Amino acid sequence: MxxxxxxxxxxxxxxxxxxxxIAVGGFGLCGxxxxxxxxxxxxxxxxxxxxxxxxxVDGFGLGLLLNSRQVKKMVASYVGENKEFERQFLAGxxxxxxxxxxTLAEKLRAGGCGIPAFYTKTGVGTLVAEGKEVKExxxxxxxMERSIISDISLVKAWKADKSGNxxxxxxxxxFNPVVAMAGKITVAEVEEIVENGQLxxxxxxxxxIYVHRLVLHKTxxxxxxxxTLTATA
Length: 233
Hints:
Elements: E1 4-5, H1 8-12, E2 21-24, H2 34-43, E3 48-51, H3 63-67, E4 71-76, H4 83-90, E5 95-98, H5 101-113, E6 117-120, E7 134-137, E8 140-146, E9 150-161, E10 166-167, H6 176-182, E11 183-194, E12 213-216
Parallel strand pairs: 1-12, 2-3, 2-9, 3-4, 4-5, 9-11, 11-12
Antiparallel strand pairs: 6-8, 7-8, 9-10
Helix pairs in contact: 5-6
InterPro entries: 3-oxoacid_CoA-transf_A, CoA_trans_fam_I, CoA_transf_BS, NagB/RpiA_transferase-like
Protein name: Succinyl-CoA--3-ketoacid-CoA transferase
Pfam families: CoA_trans
């Protein structure tokens, strides 16, 4: 089966709707599906809940969707690089569900595994625990966290075969695998697509059973939010 679509817009046009939950892979600006995020902007879906580790930066990544006011709620663990996010949140224009990073990753993984909820010590006794069930195991308190299943997951991989098996590179292999698992429909943006059988089973990070659509994007920008260099002697 060839899951490849001619463009990011074509891959999303018939599935993207107002009010959906959209999970997006990446860590900062590393490993984000740049073309797919732009396609969401171009297609104009409104009142989206965006689930991602970060909220992008002003004018790039998920920052594009914040600037266009297409996101009504963010579920994220870090939002400190985006002034427009700050402005909207402080003005009461944007909902935020702050989630510890490890908890967010597990919520996505659990959703992909069909696990509706789990218990964790992270957040006990803090604002994170407000309104959540608390249970004691072996003398320690844990809070119950619901898993996440997104309507659409958008991920970035380095390479795929036509069946949707994915290979990530370096830091892109962070939230992308669990985001891919959590989607009712998962769309992957990749830099190279090879024929079925050309990927060795040992190098596949996300099996194609999780991936429904592929988009080829050979030359992503791969912007760096804060470049730090070592001074020469």
